[in-house]
């Protein structure tokens, strides 16, 4: 069974993984000289298709599995390779930098219409996209709606 590793995208939209991370106890009676790795595909265009001391993953690879070839070379130039699978993840949520101003809505206004209530300004390491659900930034909560039968209340 092929080992599975995880790479988490950082705030700059990249994950740089040292090749030695993929080592699972390599040994050589003459001594190991170096660990190298390369990706089998590279939608990031980072040069990670060539063997190097690290492999770089990016936002376009989030929620995908990338095959990586890991190579160990001894002090005499003999080498051996294996394949590992890397699952690329983005665990950083979008960050709201500015909320829309408070507004007063009349009875007919649709508080779920973002053209009426506006959207917050935000930043994200992997370019979060808005959708039309009650959770446009895919944050871990929805609007807090407290409106009584007379149509009076608050939407947070």
Briefly characterize the structure.
The chain is mainly β and 156 residues long. The protein contains one helix and ten strands, in the order βββββββαβββ. The strands form four sheets. A four-stranded mixed beta sheet has the order 1-6-5-3, with no helix packed on it.
Q: Care to describe what's here?
A:
This protein is mainly beta and about 160 residues long. It has one helix at about 115, and strands at about 5-10, 15-20, 30-40, 55-60, 65-75, 80-90, 95-100, 120-125, 145, 155. Strand 9 and strand 10 form a beta hairpin.
- Main beta-sheet annotation: 4 strands, mixed
What does the overall shape look like? Answer: rod-shaped
Segments where pLDDT lies below 50 for 5+ residues? none
Radius of gyration: 24 Å
Enumerate the strands of the largest sheet in spatial order, edge to edge or round the barrel.
1-6-5-3
Mean pLDDT: 85
Series of H and E elements: EEEEEEEHEEE
Give the number of DSSP strands: 10
End-to-end Cα distance: 49 Å
Structural class, from secondary structure content? mainly beta
Task: Determine the strand fraction and express it as a percent band.
Answer: 35-45%
Number of helices: 1
Q: Approximately how much helix is present in the residues?
A: under 10%
